[in-house]
Amino acid sequence: MPETTVVLSEEVRDALAARRPVVALESTIIAHGLPRPRNLAVAQELEALVREGGAVPATIAVLDGTACVGLGKEQVERVASDPSVRKLGHRDLAPALATGASGATTVSATAFLAARAGIRVFATGGLGGVHRGWTETQDESADLRLLARTPVAVVCAGVKSILDVPATLQRLETLGVGVVGYRTDRFPGFYLTSSGERVDWTLDSPEEVAAVLRAQDGLGGPDAALIVANPVPEDEQLDPGVHDRVLGAALDACAERGITGQAVTPFLLEYLMTHTGGASLEANLAAVRGNVRLAARIAAAYA
Questions:
Q1: For residues 200 and 194, is the Cβ–Cβ distance under 8 A?
Q2: Active site residue 140
Q3: Contact in structure between 68 and 23 (CB atoms under 8 Å)
Q4: Model pLDDT, residue 255
Q5: Choice among 47, 140, 160, 197 that is catalytic
Q6: How many CB atoms lie within 10 A of CB 303?
Q7: Rounded to 5, what percent of the chain is helix, strand, coil?
Q8: pTM for this one?
Q9: For 20-52, how does the pLDDT look when each residue is reduced to its tens digit (9 = 90+)?
Q10: Is 26 noted as a catalytic residue in this protein?
């Protein structure tokens, strides 16, 4: 990528040059995932949590056709307040850079830019995955293929529970993306502590995760992500009974209204938030906070 199209903040550049820990953060949660003005407060909180963990935060976004790795205070405020900021996946990066657009980066775009910048650890909420009804729609998130060729550790609370979790885990296995549970043998369910699906590997400390990253580095071969599945604490998860009931109603509503393609995920997430009285949003934020704290500790151990 030409140097003129990707810019590291001075703090991030200095930290990477000195091999100090850095954690990448996505910006979609700021621009599109939370209501204003809470989105700005959460963005600032997440960066503060990274610093408390001994690492440098690198929130990533595209501003005026430049991929920015590490945002300043005014840039974060702009992403949080400007309604014209687009939502950019990996496939959208080149058009955005070429046309001078501004956009918040999703998991795929953030992971790609983080890896290009040399950042090894990325914290997010939940991954995209294989959608329910895949046999009919062939609908799966771009996150999966991108992670299959991007050497970054993604600390997340599993995949969004509105997706087909068993099919997503099978797809990750097919693509050669490593999945480890952090202090759990069950794959998390985003809003839920457990999806009920097993994971093959359990790691119990940031040092163990860092050791796996070093082993990946030493092996060479195809670059692929390591998914560190970190469950939301049981006392902060969405009530499982409420989750299942509301999600079932949301899926029915989606089918009745003929909603398909990229419109499905935002519709289901909005339905869950509205019909759980905001409880799903709080569980989401609890998961994100936990992932950011863990990512900072992993980055410190790796550095």
A1: no
A2: no
A3: no
A4: 86
A5: 160
A6: 17
A7: 50, 15, 30
A8: 0.94
A9: 999 999 999 999 988 899 999 999 999 999 999
A10: yes
